[in-house]
Every structure is written in structure tokens, then in C-alpha cells.
Amino acid sequence: MNWVAWKMLTGNRGKYIAIIVGVTFGAFLITQQSSVFWGLMVLTTSQIKDIEGADIWVMDKNMQYVDDIKPMADNELWRVRGVEGVDWAVRLYKGITRARLEDGRFQQIIMIGLDDATMVGAPREIVVGNIDDLRRPDAIIMDEAGYRQLWPNEPFKAGKMFEMNDRRAVIVGVCKSRKTFMTFPIIYTRYSQAISFIPMERKVLSFVLANPAPGLSAEEVCKRIEAQTDLQAQTREQFEWKTIWYYMKRTGIPFNFGTVVLLGFIVGAAICGQTFYMFTLENLRQFGALKAMGARNGQLIMMILLQAFVVGSIGYALGVGLAAVIFGNLVKATDKLAFAMTWQVLAGAAVSIFVMVVFSSLFSIWRVIRLEPAVVFKG
Amino acid sequence: MSLETPDAPAPAKTTAIVCRGVTKDFGVGDALVRALRGVDLDVYSGELTLLVGPSGCGKTTLLSVVCGILDATAGDIEVLDYDLHQLTGRQLVDFRRKNVGFVFQQFNLLPALNAAENVCVPLLLQGVPRRKAIERANEMLERVGLADRAKAPPSNLSGGQQQRVAIARALIHEPRLLVCDEPTSALDARTGHTIMELLREVACGSDRAVVVVTHDPRVYEFGDRIASMEDGRVVGVAEGTEAKRMAADQSALMRTGKN
User: Fold this and answer.
1) Helix, strand, coil percent values for chain A (each to nearest 5)
2) How far is B182 from chain A (nearest CA, A)?
3) ipTM strictly over 0.90?
4) For B46-68+86-255, which CATH superfamily applies?
5) What is the mean pLDDT of residues A133-146?
6) pLDDT given for residue B123 in this prediction
7) What is the pTM of this model?
8) Is B82 on the interface with A (CB under 8 A)?
9) Does a structural domain hold residue A208?
10) Chain B, window 193-232: residues with a beta carbon less than 8 angstroms from a chain A beta carbon
């Protein structure tokens, strides 16, 4: 009877298309909004991802996310190094400072201060210059997006200068980096240089980056560090999730995106459900005839669910495809769009669409189950 | 007309339907409507039985009860040796699927399926593979004279052709009971006559009982047995020569415009 269900569905082309349009709309909106939401969440972790080379991030125990910097005393580095199981540990400065450009403009800038000796956490892809150039006085490397933001339409080149904390900074290179949530330019410099670009403070150490000794897991070493230093130690992945959860819990981002996702679900379900129900009502006599001829309720339910599954699958594919094509191309065209269509987003959208079409078909199923086959004898 | 007629059925005839004191109520309390008030009726295999009577007399309700679509409120109903009272809802569905063919007043063909596909639906319900079911459907369409219209959708068929498709659908799984609800009322007189001829020709077999509900006197001539209903009861059964006389009387009345 599945074949009959398929023929019934596609036989009424107008309603068939209308139902698919409803599901497509829902799938598009759910996927697009979820992808943008997740894209934003991923942005919050981009600086953790960009600072590679260390598996363990050590920070103040009250720190809640990557930008919630609570500076530590420099001697915390030695305490971490003293923990058994720590292979190596280096310092890292991360903070936001204000730059004064040559033309007098001011610009907030994210500054990363790398360990002078090892340069752990340095950008991997240098577009202009070389990482060793950072060893020169006043040297900084700026990210591409930041460079474009400050000097639009100008080619990347070394030698640009600006001031931070009344000290001269010279761009010696341009690097690639992930987009950040803050969208400020990012500069990399040596730790010792970084602390000269900020006002004098008693504590300036933002993070200690460490790696576990061979044979030990990062989780195990994190536990040891926390036990012995009263600091907070997180693996890279833990720190990313900690940051994401902070934004999820403490900001209105999930709620705002959630309302649009819910709207997509409701509107899609409404269009789909209403059209699907009308479709069933139109075929009620035929369903009655099938019941009279000996079709079981289970068979009819399967027919309706199959129809729902078909329109759900097609609508999902179209909705997701549209979102991928449109926003995939937009992402390529602009660096301002946060859009991460991960398999989790696709799976979530699939579950939503599945729930939507099943929910939409419930009214039809209810109507058909309650249908008296004797209805077919009424003229 | 009496229940006991001189032309009693021959002893060899098999009783397909036995109704004794069948009642059917709809609603409860003040809203209670008694559609059947103690129906006694025998229907035999190999015969075409007409259920006739004025609108609202309970013909269609009785038809629905004997084919297992509606439960009787009281009384005994035995159909094809099944005591319908003893069957569960699921068993009744199985009973209908295997043993009953339906011809409806409004045809009730699935508009999305072509003629052959519509005809094969009862076989699909029984789990017969589609290819085999379509083959059988084409054979059935040939029997009802529509072999050349097998791929036509219902919307491209005339009313008479649609009813032929419906008859083919009702017979494809070789049911032992064929129930027809006003099969000619949506058709003009000539087409209705042709449909009744077809029903007699292809539907009536020694092992199959055909019950036709009608209030169209022009089809009385096709009945082996005519059960007249009034106010929820079978008030008389004419058979044999009496049935023929009844049909002739109705024809005469119609010719003189008194009916």
C-alpha cells in the first residue's frame, strides 16, 4: 500500500508542492538560524583554536570564559611548571588594548603576548613577514581582517605603525586567523613587548599554556595542576566548551536565535499541517473506501506516515540545500557572517523536521482512525 | 407478497447471509434512532438479491451490518458461516478484506490511480505484489470491457466506465459476497441497465452472493430475490416468478407515469 500512498500524495500536485514548500521553509529557517547561532558560538572559541601548540590552559580559578581575563601573578608560571606531570609551561598574555593610528583614530585591539623564548601559540599561517620578525623591537603581527579593517583597500605590507600606551608598534607581518566574536583586529607580539603596550599593572599574566608529560593525559595533568596550585586548568576542548556554555547561559543569544528557530518550526508545521490535513480531508472518502475494503488502521497510518516522511525528506533536503547554497556563498563573499553548518546542526534540523511532519500528520491520522467506513455508503 | 413463497429456494442452495431479529440503533437516550427493527432475511449464494424500499427505510444500514462495517445492536447475523457477533474488530476487517467486494454509489475510485491501479487495490491490501496485482487487474478490466482504458485515470472515464472499474475492483479478489450500494443511481437509465447486466454476467456465480441496495425499480428485473424494506424491517421477499411479476408491475407503473 506504500505505493498507493505515494501515488495519492503525488497525484494532487498542488497540495503536494504546498506541503513541501511548508517543510522547506521550516527546514531552511531552522537550519539557517541554527547555523548562524552555532557559527557565533564557534566564534567565541576561535582564539582558543588559534593559539595552538598547548593542550592545557591554566588560568585564574574564577575565570568563566576566554575573554573573562583575571590576571595572575607571574610566579604562577613557576608553580605550574613545578607540578609533576607538566612537560612544559609558558606564559601567555591576552587582553584588549587601545591603539592610536597615525591619522588619529582610535581602535580597540585584541593583543596576544607570546612567550618570548618559545613563541608557543604563534599564528600558523603568516601571509606577510615571518614569525621571527616578532623578535625585533616594537614588532607586532596583525591578522588579515584587522589589517583590512584599519586600512581598507590597501595591500598587506610590513612597516605600518601605530601607538599603544604611548609606545610605538610596528607591523612586521600579517597572518591568517579565525574570525572572533568581538571582531576587533588581533595582534601578536612577544609577552615582554605586550606588557609594555598596556598600562602598568601588578598582575599581567593571563594564561599559562602547558603540555602534559609523555604518557599522561591532559585531563589527568589538569587535575594535578588544580589540586596543587589552586588555579583552574582546562584542556583545550574543555575550555572551548566552557566558553560556549558561558555564552549560552549568560547571554540572550540562544534565546533570540531559539525564538526564530521556533518560529520556523511553528510556521513550517502550520503550513505543512494544514495542507496535509486538507489533503487528508479531500481523500477521506477514499480512505473510507479503503477501510471498508479491509484496510487496517495500521496500514492507513503507515500510508499517512510514509506521505509525511516523503514530504519531510524532500522539504528537508531542499531547505538545507538552499541554506547551504545561499549562506555558503555568502560566507565566501564576506567575513562578517558567522555560519557553521555542522553535522550536529543538520542532525538537529532533521529531528526538528521529523517532529514537524509527524506532528502535522497526527491530525490526519486521528481523522482517519476515527473515520467510520460506513461513510462510503453515504451518497 | 409473503415471506413464505411457493417458489422456495431449492434445497441445494447455500445460505450466504442469515439475519434473525437484527436491530441497529444509533445514538442514545432521547437521540436514539432505531434504524433496523428486527430484520429477518436470508440471502443465498448464486443469487442476486435486491434490497428495495423508500429512502430511510434502513437498506444501507442493513447492507453495512451484513458486510461487517457496522455492528448490529441485537439479533443474530451469520455471513458466509461467520457469526459476525463473535468477530473482533480486527477479525471483521480481515473478514471484509477476504470475503466482501464493494460497489459504491459514488464509485469511490482513487483519483490518483489509473483504472488498472484502482482495480488492484484489494489485492494490494492482501499483500499481493504490485506487478502481479496489475496483471490480474488488466484481466478483470478485460472482463468488464475496459481493457483499452486500463491506464486512464478516473477523471477521464465516464460514469458508466467508472462503475465498471469499481465492479472489477470489487471482484478482483474473488469475494464470496458482493455488496452494491445504489450502483445505478449516479448513472443514466441506459448505463444503469448495462451495469446491472454486467453485474449479473460477471458477478453472479454459484459461490457468490450479490446484494444490491436500490430504490430504482428499473433494475428489479435483475433480481433473483427482492427484499422489500419499510421502516427498518424486511416486510416481504419476492423471488422467482413473483419477483419477475413485481419487476414487470414496476415497469408498467413507470410506463404509465404512476410511480
Assistant:
1) 55, 20, 30
2) 9
3) no
4) P-loop containing nucleotide triphosphate hydrolases (3.40.50.300)
5) 92
6) 93
7) 0.75
8) no
9) yes
10) none
